[in-house]
Amino acid sequence: MSQDIDNRLRSLRDELDEIDRRLLESIRDRIDVCARVAHVKRAFDIPMMQPARVGVVQERARVFARAHDLSEEFLVSVYSTLIAEACRVEDAIIESEPAVSRTASNTQRR
Q: Model-level pTM greater than 0.85?
């Protein structure tokens, strides 16, 4: 009986590991898209913070939570963390020195 339980748990843990792998890849993909958004914002001098967009994303999490009998607080918290990281990445890109300026600065230092 113990072997049967171990096999069941191993199978379920394998399933969780696969879900975690996909989740981590999706998070990486999301951050990659946020980086591309930051490049557009930088090119067109658009402010990094877009409160209306943040609200849309958080509301989508709430709706999903309600539709799937999950905690709204939990999913909003997850998205708050994702949004905070996206903001960090976007800030770093938007505030970075333009490539042309870096090249000129490097040439001037030589």
A: no
